[in-house]
Every structure is written in structure tokens, then in C-alpha cells.
Amino acid sequence: MSIDGTSESAPVTGERTEDAHEGGFRTDMMISVDRGGPRYGEFIEKVREFMDRARAAFPSEELVDELIDELTVVNAKLAAVEINEWESPSGTRIDLPARGNITLPPYLVDKAGDDGVQARVTFTRFHLGGNNAAHGGFICTAFDDLLGMTSALATGKVTRTAYLTVNYRSITPLNTELTVSTSIVRLEGRKIFVAATMKDGERLCAEADGLFIALNPGQP
Ligand SMILES: CCCCCCCCCCCCCCCC(=O)SCCNC(=O)CCNC(=O)[C@H](O)C(C)(C)COP(=O)(O)OP(=O)(O)OC[C@H]1O[C@@H](n2cnc3c(N)ncnc32)[C@H](O)[C@@H]1OP(=O)(O)O
Question: What is the CB neighbour count within 10 angstroms for residue 99?
Fold first, then answer.
């Protein structure tokens, strides 16, 4: 343990098998439905449950000691199988909620085409902002990813967010399935103007508009 109380474990770099590539995102995103095996989605659900429970828990000192020991064992097992971002099941398993990526709030895509995406997202205790409402940053994260997907599907190209404006219109509840609808506002060369809404039933919780730029070859 270091003087500031943090662990001395090596940082997770994902560099172990990383090779050279042409840009920030690969044009040939290595999507998969089986990487990590048939129970990988169940593993991700357990991790998400852990994140929720860790956020909600008030453990005793004894339990904290016990959990540190158990998590040290789990982390060592995961460290032994660390891999680069392109081949990790997390983020590439398109059959799983949010592509199996725990960074993202879990969403399910109902419809995805070149004119927009329809999805359902549920924020849980891990995403708590305050007083049982979702944290605005996670709302923004959901919009960013689904609008990135929208831009990619509309152009068939790798894109990055240039700007994303989110307006929070009413409280976004936890543990409630919310609908997200995205659309293409207009395409102008490499510029993809997009918009989205997030609703609880008919109630507008938040809306977003953004600009994504299709990357040139070699652009990071
Ligand atoms: C069903 C399953 C399917 C699965 C399918 C997989 C889907 C998989 C989805 C992944 C989804 C990931 C979604 C996360 C996406 C991020 O979160 S990306 C991370 C956040 N974004 C960044 O880090 C970007 C940082 N910024 C940059 O890299 C550069 O500024 C940019 C955005 C690439 C633009 O730079 P550039 O390429 O040099 O472009 P530049 O020439 O400056 O500008 C081009 C044009 O855009 C305009 N522009 C640029 N920036 C701005 C701005 N901020 N405001 C206004 N105009 C602007 C310029 O004025 C210019 O306009 P014109 O003169 O052409 O009219």
C-alpha cells in the first residue's frame, strides 16, 4: 500500500498484445458474438451487480478486509488475461447490452439503421447522481455512444464526437427502462449532425444534439 492508501498494483494498460494500427478507431472493428464464450454476458452482469452493490454498501471494517482479499484474487486472475482494446470481448460483443462494455450504461438496441437508432437504457444504483436520479454524466455517456453508433451506421465510417450538447429536461430515474431515439439531422461532407431524446414513457428526461466527424485514414 502506498502512502496515499492506493494499491501498488500495475495499471491496466491493455498493451500486452497491442499492435500498430492506422487510427484512433479501427475501421474493421472486430465485432463478435462469441468472444469470451457463451457465459461472458453473465460475467458482465455479475460485474455490473458488483458495481451496484459496491455503490450501495456500508460494509463493516471486517467485511472490507475480507473483500480486499477476495478482490485481490479476482484482479490477479483478470490481470493474467489482459488484452488490447480491439480484441477484448468488452466493447466488441454486439449481442450483449452496450456491447458488453461496463463503461457504458447497459442499453439494448431495438432498431439500428442508417437513419437512426432506437434503444432502451436502464440506469441503476451505480449510475446514481443524487436523490434516486441518474448522474448527468452517465446520461451524456449513453447519448455519446448511441450517437456514435448512429453516425457510424449512417456513413459506414469511423467517427469521433466533435461536440455533444445535452439538455436535462426532467429527472431521469434509476431502475426504469428509458427509451432513447437518435436521428441524423444532416450530413455535410465529413460532418454528421445528430440528435437524440431520452424518455420515461412520454416524459422527456433529456435531449442531445451533436456533431460527429468521420475520421480520415490515419487520424487518431
Ligand atoms: C447494431 C450494432 C452495430 C455496432 C456498430 C459499432 C458502433 C460503434 C459505436 C462506437 C461509438 C463510440 C462513441 C464514442 C465517441 C467518442 O466519444 S470520441 C471521443 C471524444 N471526441 C474526441 O476525442 C475528439 C477530439 N477531437 C478531434 O479528434 C478532432 O477535433 C476532430 C473531432 C476529429 C475533428 O478534427 P479534424 O478531423 O481535423 O476536422 P477539422 O478539419 O478540424 O473539422 C472538420 C469540419 O468540422 C468542423 N468542426 C470540427 N470540430 C468542431 C466543433 N467542435 N464544433 C463545430 N464544428 C466543428 C470544422 O469547422 C470543419 O468544418 P468545415 O470547415 O469542413 O465546414
Answer: 22
CA of 212 to the centre of ligand 1 (A): 4
Q: Give the chain's end-to-end CA distance (angstroms, integer).
A: 36
Quickly tell me which residue has 449510475 as its cell. Answer: 127
User: What is the total residue count of the chain?
Assistant: 220
Q: Which region, left, alpha or beta, applies to residue 116 given φ > 0 means left and ψ of -120 to 50 means alpha?
A: left
pLDDT tens sequence across 25-46: 665 567 899 999 999 999 999 9
163 lines ligand 1 (CB under 6 A): yes
Q: What pTM was computed for the model?
A: 0.92
Closest CA to 97 of 42, 23, 164: 42
ipTM score for this prediction: 0.96
152 lines ligand 1 (CB under 6 A): yes
Give residue 20's pLDDT.
45
